Amino acid sequence: MSEDLRPQLEEHLQSLNIRTSCVEHPPVFTVEEMMPHLQDVNGAVTKNLFLKDKKKKGLWLVSTRHDRQVNLNDLAKKLGVGSGNLRFANEAAMLEKLKVGQGCATALALLFDKDHSVKCVLDRDLLEGGHDMVYFHPMTNGATMGIHPDDLLRFLKETGHEPVLESFD
């Protein structure tokens, strides 16, 4: 895993004066496994999907509230890549672009997408839902990090990733 990149992420967040709160837990690979460890957090827990557009070879990181259903065909239409064209990208692509493996996809890994080849899609609710914090893995699935929605947006823009906001109601 990319546990060794977590200090770089934390240093970067500190350099932006972004405060976070972290919950350490055993490594988890699904939202279902993670949720029992996050019962005391106040905010929106996310799930993150690393997708590719099979025609244009584009890469997408989609972050939604953990309880949302993501219909890949609907999302593909909204993003203009054509129905049926979004697929889960393989782990090799995720390791190459985001430096994280299976179970660790996170919007915070966009810090390591130096060539800005991954497009970011955010659930509009994460920014506009009035949440105190939104929660992501900090480069490891053995912890979950809370970050204020405004700080998340500032972090993403600062990494060169202007998020596409979508509704997943």
From TrEMBL:
It comes from the Eukaryota. InterPro entries: ProX/PRXD1 (IPR040285), YbaK/aa-tRNA-synt-asso_dom_sf (IPR036754), YbaK/aa-tRNA-synth-assoc-dom (IPR007214). It holds the Pfam family tRNA_edit. GO terms for molecular function: aminoacyl-tRNA deacylase activity. Gene3D superfamilies: YbaK/aminoacyl-tRNA synthetase-associated domain. Residues 25-155 form the YbaK/aminoacyl-tRNA synthetase-associated domain. SUPFAM superfamilies: YbaK/ProRS associated domain (SSF55826). Belongs to the PRORSD1 family. This is PrdX deacylase domain-containing protein 1.
